[in-house]
Amino acid sequence: MGRYSRLREIRRMDPARDCTEILRLVSQYEFPWDYRQGISVAFLRDYGVPRISLLLDRTQEFERNGQKRYDDTVLFGYEMAADGFDSERARAAARHLNRIHGKYRIPNEDYLYVLATTVVGPKRWIDRFGWRPLCATETAALAEVGRRMAVLMGIEDAPDTYEGFEELLDSYEDRMFAYDPANRRVANATFRIMAAWYPAPLRPLVARISLALLDEPLLRALGFPSQPRWVRATATRMVRARSHGVRMLPARPRWLPSRPRPRSYPFGYRLDDLGPHWAQSRPLEPLPLEKS
């Protein structure tokens, strides 16, 4: 396939009707590495909010089972989208996720913010570092995916457009970003997980580059120092050099999708494996559509 042939295919799709297929093409074919980086930054943004990081720090899930916690979060999103948001597979994943969250008193605005990071995070990363920016159809499809996940999980007042998600995220961070020691503890645990994906000699460099690619408000909220200008410039050039190389390659073939490869489940997983062990004994939370 030509490098831009899949983009032409996506532009012929309807972002509302075909959002699941567009998400699959974006995350598994066009931008698999960049999409994962955008999701990773989305995780980190959650930790800039003390109300969220204090809860995560109290559970100690990242300290004790950090890689599993990371994998489970990615896999829940994959399970809800894999067969479409109207599928039984999606509903089962949403019920299980609601069962986990049901133990805690989480405000609706926090659910909305976390959801917004998964819509806005990949878009901003890809537009900044991808081999091409997202087109309008892809952007609208990401927003539709976020809206459908909100409906599935019973999250109220989700925006209908990408611009709405972006405005929600920015306004929430303006109000809620603040430093707390819990922010740094959870972020450090996550950085240790990410650094462990690379050979030991490269880990200090990976950590430095990761910090250099984060924006100043997030660094302040996490309690990390601002990186020198030359470090930020070098990190940006390195990531963009990779994208330039990707642009020169042919499109990923249909038979080679880039699906999640969770390190916690080398022999595969079942839905009940996802989440902390105690969640398996909690009653299932009915979905909003099942309550009516």
From TrEMBL:
The organism's superkingdom is given as Bacteria
- TM helices/strands, residue ranges: none
Which InterPro entries does the record associate with it? MPAB, MPAB/Lcp_cat_dom
Q: Domain (ER-bound oxygenase mpaB/mpaB'/Rubber oxygenase catalytic): give its ranges.
A: 61-239
Q: What is the designated name of this protein?
A: ER-bound oxygenase mpaB/mpaB'/Rubber oxygenase catalytic domain-containing protein
Give the source species: Streptomyces clavifer
